[in-house]
């Protein structure tokens, strides 16, 4: 008879309670699948007296998550508190130092401190696993680390923040402004306590940095992610992009280029007809491209109690089965520092501008683009709004630096009304 796997959980919020419920409700199934009992022994949260809707009196309680991590009756420390450092990091370190494996859903901690934690785990012959940290219920970490391990990964793309996708979808469906939908989403509790983590692209950037590390064998480098949130996306651009056959998504892209590692989490246009273009509401999608497999598309719930707890359980089950995977898919000491690419891979761009309605205005803009070496693919001028003509241009592939040069020169033409909007179009 195998010995039980003893589990300690720090953090009994949405995800933590979800994990407790699965451990309580599916004990026979989990034992059948692992050949061992999964036994929750100890728990920790800020408030001991809070009613969490699940009986918890049968588990040892610790006020201090570090004390929980050090307990002798815990084999696996499950960190579900959150936060880049503070108690989450201190308790994770304490767990590793006292011989525990660690499972966490904390993308912020791993995106910033992951390399040091992975090295610490390796030195202690322990594992740190984080399936739940990226795209909630979608098993994307496993897909990259295991299922696609025989591929050279060429590109990783994804919509990895459900709140941003919800906001963008709702703006389009209801014809509401960003601020109106942001306020609504915030009131409904769809956003993080610090909403900037969502709408600023930071949360999704953390996730992208984690996937890039596994995909390209590089040390996780969140600071190298080009970040731009969705706060400046207007309902006008959502509508106009739609007219040209696109939808706007907060899209993450990671690829290794001859110029270094490119990591971007920015609002981009994707074809409406593509799987990413069809993604609505809070759902996530990750596209993995490899030299052998070509393209794998994973779609599912990126957050919530059940989906995220499901991912946490998958890591616990691995540990119970004796499947010991390194944090980022290869030993931490073999991960190489990532050199960030200074410039993004050339792409087509969507440009929206308002022009003074006078002869030759459009010709001046076309000339500026031509002088910067940018070729126009498609163009549309709308019925005038007062003295101004709204104009959309879709360019052929160009570099961001050529585009910036053209945008700067447009200001000097004397025909622009206001600032132009430029958004990258990502081929899928
Ligand atoms: P919650 O805010 O719902 O829960 C956090 C829990 O941590 C609470 O139980 C809280 O205690 C406890 N806690 C916070 N600080 C301390 C501390 N200093 N000592 C002890 N306990 C503490 O968070 P979530 O469950 O939503 O998220 C947990 C982790 O999972 C985060 O890293 C998050 O990014 C990640 N995640 C969450 C997803 C989701 O859908 N919610 C999806 C994917 C990842 P108390 O209840 O007493 O206040
Ligand atoms: N009427 C203008 C032109 C179009 O011919 O260039 C934009 O104002």
Describe the fold and architecture:
The protein folds into three domains: 5-133, NAD(P)-binding Rossmann-like Domain (Rossmann fold), CATH 3.40.50; 140-300, Dihydrodipicolinate Reductase, domain 2, CATH 3.30.360.10; 349-425, Alpha-Beta Plaits (2-Layer Sandwich). It is built from 14 helices and 16 strands. The termini are far apart. The chain has helices at residues 14-25, 27-34, 65-70, 86-97, 107-123, 140-147, 162-174, 178-187, 196-199, 202-216, 235-243, 305-321, 361-371, 400-410; strands at residues 5-10, 38-44, 60-62, 76-79, 101-104, 128-129, 153-159, 226-227, 246-257, 260-271, 283-290, 294-301, 349-356, 376-381, 388-395, 416-425. The protein is of the alpha/beta class and 428 residues long. α4 packs parallel to α5 (107-123) and α5 (107-123) runs parallel beside α10. α5 (107-123) links the parallel β5 (101-104) and β6 (128-129). Strands 7, 8, 9, 10, 11, 12, 13, 14, 15 and 16 form a ten-stranded mixed beta sheet that branches. The structure holds NADPH dihydro-nicotinamide-adenine-dinucleotide phosphate (NDP) and L-homoserine. NADPH dihydro-nicotinamide-adenine-dinucleotide phosphate binds next to α1.
